[in-house]
């Protein structure tokens, strides 16, 4: 390579690695507005030694949410990489509902929560909901995953966050295959907005799971 080409290569490498100085203070709680701010925030997180006893309650919840989001990323990557082998290893053993919100509510959450969500309608006999086991979730087509996520958001708005809703959200978000399209991005952005609104009015027991879902949407799907 001649000297001119070498200089050009060095120039473009320098430009590629150049990060502009931030135009506002960078904090752990901020939402990055562009790629530069995202890089600065990531560097801050990497360099920050977090001492939980020095954090406020809100900061502790966000810190825990970030840790869980990193675990989620590993889980989702493995799930989507091994989905075919997982289908063989964990065959479907239950009958899945059709694309019907109420039937999925019965299936996922069981009778008690179904009756709470649809309180103005006729209740049905006592029935336990299903956990989001691998023998179920790896057999769901992408359109069904997105539909049930929509249902879960509605149920979250109706009765707040609980363990069952949180588990189903976690597992179905992991089932989404990337890259996601704009409609799916809108769906999970609305989910995050619902979680943030719920955080303002929720019981103490709901906060941890709500923070986890928000961090997953931010860090895995980039829905800032």
Automatic annotation (TrEMBL):
One of its GO terms (biological process) is spliceosomal snRNP assembly. GO terms for cellular component: nucleus; SMN complex. It holds the Pfam family SIP1. It comes from the Eukaryota. Belongs to the gemin-2 family. This is Gem-associated protein 2.
């Amino acid at each position: 390579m001649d000297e001119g080409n070498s200089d050009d290569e060095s120039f473009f490498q320098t430009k590629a690695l150049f990060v502009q100085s931030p135009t506002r203070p960078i904090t752990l709680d901020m939402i990055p507005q562009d790629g530069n701010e995202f890089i600065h925030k990531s560097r801050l997180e990497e360099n920050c030694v977090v001492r939980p006893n020095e954090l406020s309650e809100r900061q502790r919840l966000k810190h825990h949410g970030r840790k869980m989001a990193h675990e989620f990323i590993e889980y989702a990557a493995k799930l989507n990489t091994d989905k075919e082998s997982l289908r063989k290893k964990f065959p479907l053993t239950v009958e899945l509902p059709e694309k019907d919100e109420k039937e999925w509510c019965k299936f996922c959450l069981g009778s008690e929560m179904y009756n709470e969500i649809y309180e103005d309608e006729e209740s049905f006999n006592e029935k336990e909901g299903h956990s989001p086991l691998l023998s179920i979730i790896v057999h769901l087509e992408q359109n069904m995953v997105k539909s049930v996520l929509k249902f879960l958001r509605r149920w979250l708005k109706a009765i707040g966050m609980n363990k069952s809703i949180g588990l189903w959200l976690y597992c179905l978000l992991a089932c989404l295959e990337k890259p996601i399209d704009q409609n799916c991005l809108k769906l999970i952005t609305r989910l995050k907005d619902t979680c943030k609104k719920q955080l303002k009015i929720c019981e103490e027991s709901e906060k941890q799971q709500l923070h986890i879902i928000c961090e997953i949407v931010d860090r895995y799907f980039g829905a800032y």
